[in-house]
Amino acid sequence: MKDIKMVDLHGQYLNIKNEVDEAMAKVIADSSFINGADVKLFAEELAAYIDVKHVIPCANGTDALQIALMALDLPQNAEIIVPTFNYVATAEVIALLGYKPVFIDSSIEDFNLLVGKIEEAITENTKAIMPVHLFGQCADMLPILRIAQKYNLFVIEDTAQAIGAEYTFPDGTSKFAGTIGHIGTTSFFPSKNLGCMGDGGAIFTNDDELALKMKTIANHGQKVKYMYDEVGINSRLDTIQAALLRVKLRNLKTYTLNRQNAARYYSEALKGYQNLVTPILNQKSTHVFHQYTLQIDAEWRNDFAQYLKNAGIPTMIYYPKALHLHNAYQFLGYKSGDYVNAEYLSERVISLPMHTELNSEQLSYICESIISYLKSR
Fold first, then answer.
1. What pLDDT digit, counting tens, does each position of 171-180 carry?
2. Is 49 in the same domain as 78?
3. pTM of the entire structure?
4. pLDDT of 89-136, one tens digit each?
5. Domain boundary at 201, 218, 250, which?
6. Same domain, yes or no, for 209 and 262?
C-alpha cells in the first residue's frame, strides 16, 4: 500500500503530468510570466464554470479578501460579522484594514456560522457579513441574504474551502459558492480543491462596478498604466500558476467526485460508533469535502491522533482554538465561554486524510484502524 498522505499533490500531478508540463513549458517558452494569456483565459473559464460574470485573479486568498473589503469603501468604524470557528484570514484582513471583526458562533452540526446568531450581533456600525463555507459545504445563504437586505449589509463569501459547492434555494434553483453574495473570494493554495503549485487566489462578482474597482485595486490602483485612480496593492496571479489551474479546472468535477466518494466510504464505514460523529450533510448544499472532519470526545483526541500516527495515518486539527481566544484578538474583549459551540468544536474536531488520490485499500486501512481504536476504548 502507498504511504497515506493528508494531501497527495504529487499523486495528483502524476495523473495530469503531460498536460501540466506542456502548459508550463508553453509559458516558459513565451516568457509571459506576468499577466500572460493564460491568466485571462483561466478567469474566463472559471467564470463560465461557476456561472459568475466576473473573476478577478489575484496573488492569494487573503489578498482576495482584502481587495474585496477595500472595494466597498466602508467607514473606519465599520463592524464585520465573521465566524470565530474559522481560519484566521477573514478576521485578519478586517483588523488590518482598521475595521472591527465581530465574531459569532458556529453550528455543531455543519461547522458553518450560526445564522440565528447574526441579528443579535448587528449594531448601527455593522456593514457586512462574511460567511465562510467551511470544510467544503455552503453556509445557509438564503437567511443570510435576507438579513443583509433587511439591514443594508454587504455579503462577502469566503469560498477558499468550497469551490464547486452548490447551494440550493427553496424554489429549486442553485448557485455556486462564492456567487451568491455581493462578492466571493477563493484561494488556490496547493492543498485546496482547486490548487496551484504556489500561491494564488481570485475574487468573484456579478457587479460590473465592483469588478472594475477590485481589478483596479489589485493592479496598484491603475485602470491605465501609471494613472492611479485608487489606493491599491500589487496582487497578481502568475501566468504559470494560471496555466496549471486551467488544467486542473478541467478535472475539477472528477476531483470533487473522488473526494465525495472517499467521504462516502468513511461515513459508511464509521457510522454508528459512539463517541464519534461523522460529518453531517446539509440538505441545502452539496459538499465538496475540502476536509473530512470528525468529532471525537475531547479527552480521547490526542490519544486517537497518536494512535493513527503510529499506524502511518496522518491527521490534522482544523482548528485547535477559536479565533476570539487568540492573543491577536484579545483587544476585542472576548473571553472563554463567549462562543460555546466554537469552543466545543475546537476541542473535538479532527480531520482525516482527504484528497483526490485516496484508493480503496488506503480507505479500508484507515477505517479499520479507527474502528480498532474505538473498540479498544
1. 999 999 999 9
2. yes
3. 0.97
4. 999 999 999 999 999 999 999 999 999 999 999 999 999 999 999 999
5. 250
6. no
Whether the pLDDT of residue 274 is over 90: the answer is no
Angle, CA of 361, 376 and 277, to the nearest 5°: 70
What are the tens digits of pLDDT across the range 36-81? 999 999 999 999 999 999 999 999 999 999 999 999 999 999 999 9
Domain closes at, from 250, 265, 298? 250
> Is 4 inside a domain boundary?
no
Which CATH number fits the domain that encloses residue 192?
A: 3.40.640.10
At 133-148, the pLDDT tens digits run 999 999 999 999 999 9
The boundaries of the domain holding residue 289 are 252-376
Give me the pLDDT at residue 377, please: 84
Position 3 in a domain: no
Asked if residue 324 and residue 234 are part of one domain, the reply reads: no
Pair (140, 175) in one structural domain:
yes
